[in-house]
Amino acid sequence: MTGRHVLNTQGASVSEAAVREFLSSVQGRVLRPGDEGYEAGRRVWNGMIDRHPSMILYAAGAADVAAAVAFSGKNSLLVAVRSGGHNVAGNAVCDGGLVIDLSRMKKIDVDAGAMTARADAGLVWGEFDNAAHAYGLATTGGLVSSTGIAGLTLGGGIGWLMRKYGLTCDNLLSVNIITAEGRELTASEKENADLFWAIRGGGGNFGIVTSFTYRLHPVRDVLSGAVLYPADSAREILRGYRSRLPAFPDELTTMFLFLTLQPARYLPDHLRGLRAVAVYLCHAGDPQEGLRAVQPLRELSAPLLDTVAVMPYPRFQSMFDANASPGLLNYWKSVYLEALSDACIETITEHAEKMTSPLTQIHLQHMQGAAGRLPEDAMAFSHRSALCCLNIVTKWTDSAESGRHIGWAQTFAEAMGPYAHGVYVNFLGDEGNDRIRSAYNPETYKRLVALKTKYDPSNLFRLNQNIRPAAGG
Ligand SMILES: Cc1cc2nc3c(=O)[nH]c(=O)nc-3n(C[C@H](O)[C@H](O)[C@H](O)COP(=O)(O)OP(=O)(O)OC[C@H]3O[C@@H](n4cnc5c(N)ncnc54)[C@H](O)[C@@H]3O)c2cc1C
After folding, report:
1. What residue ranges of the chain have pLDDT lower than 50?
2. Can you tell me which atom of ligand 1 is nearest the CA of 168?
């Protein structure tokens, strides 16, 4: 689909007069098929996604977003909302319809005295972290510096500071949001509190957030890094890791990985291409206490490499960037685990041994701490009792091999069925309604449907992990 007609959800063209009126009402640049920049603009992080929107609006501010919402509603356009473009499901771009792209909206104001930051939705975590770090402050954010603050926050926000300071959404104080009616609202504990409850975990279902205000914490340098071990003793090392989890202080957030070591500046030549397991860790507290807390993780076996050191928080925050290049073919499967039984460890290890691509990684992110202590009904984000979040991050480069890699991930995910307790909404691909439901506990899901019916009865915001409004709502 490369024509310049703007197509609505029925496949009919919107009149050029209506399109011209819209174009004259917005400040931001609009791209249509054939325009310079359109091809790059329609790409998202996951190279599996190949869609052709009728228009891409690079919104210049909240007024542009409101105008785009009104235009889309009036002309029955399919709407995709894009901030960082990282979501693996690729819902940030559509076929036909309009992409409302917020990636040019990048203002951030840090109030060091109040320890808060008001951040435009187009920022990515690297930009946010660097701005806050200038004041010795941070909040929980994503592990890769190019992930958007918007999508990550609205789905929850798992990160290196979560066991000490909670998830990203736990640190959200308020948002500025454009509703499906095109109204600009503030949502916080005091204003539109039901909407504020819904957007903290409910994703992009309830409106387009143009800015976020976060609580910040005093975090400047962190004891952090990776300890790599050989994969042939993966079972014993993972069992050793499990046995140490209960003693971890809140300051310590860790992740266990299965991976093939890729060329990196810090990696000696003889380790390149080797199958390994790793513990990545971040201690956000006193470094001396940190050294004591992380020691048991540095001697799970004889390490291949140990990079643990005190470093500026933003530096550790970008340590995964090399493994997250845009444009690779990606297929993810994820579940929460309430426990790591021997049988569960066996299942994970057995499938890890059959990994089909050297770019694939298996992540076991340890949760709990402050992230696990808020009441389950505090906000839409669910499954706070999970011990770990397992993510099968399948990546490859040759599309002719897609079936093999996807097949491996699906077989692995099926085998994890007996141990699964829900899923993190931000790691979902295009996996259907039952999987979306399983991202929430049943009471939360019911309440989300009621709030979707209130705030977006016609389901204008449907390109997301969609919570459908009640029929006739
Ligand atoms: C390399 C990589 C690393 C990741 N690391 C982490 C991690 O450490 N922790 C973690 O929790 N998650 C992580 N994720 C998952 C991430 O949280 C989600 O992919 C998230 O959706 C990305 O947000 P985005 O703004 O970049 O995405 P986009 O693709 O731009 O948006 C995703 C969806 O969010 C909604 N949305 C986006 N912007 C807005 C807005 N302004 N208002 C309303 N709705 C909006 C839309 O429905 C959109 O389809 C990672 C993903 C990748 C690819």
Report:
1. 1-2
2. 11
Interval 332-363: pLDDT, tens: 999 999 999 999 999 999 999 999 999 999 99
Calculate how far, in angstroms, residue 215's C-alpha sits from the geometric centre of ligand 1. 20
The pTM of this model reads 0.97
Helix, strand, coil in percent for the chain, rounding step 5: 35, 25, 45
Q: Atom 7 in ligand 1: which residue has the minimum CA distance?
A: 142
Dist. CA 17–CA 87, nearest whole Å:
34
Which residues' Cβ are closer than 6 Å to ligand 1?
Answer: 44-45, 81-88, 91-92, 102, 121, 142-144, 147-148, 150-152, 154-159, 203-204, 208-209, 324, 426, 463-464
* Ligand 1 centroid distance, CA of 48 (Å): 16
Q: pLDDT value at position 263?
A: 84
Ligand 1 pocket, mutate which of 86, 153, 255, 323 (most atoms under 8 A from CB): 86
Domains of the chain: 16-101 (3.30.43.10), 108-218+448-455 (3.30.465.10), 221-427 (3.40.462.20)
SS3 (DSSP) at 82: strand
pLDDT at position 1: 45
How many angstroms separate the CA atoms of 259 and 276, rounded?
6
Q: How far is the CA of 372 from the centre of ligand 1 (A)?
A: 21
Query: Which ligand 1 atom sits closest to the C-alpha of 464?
Result: 47
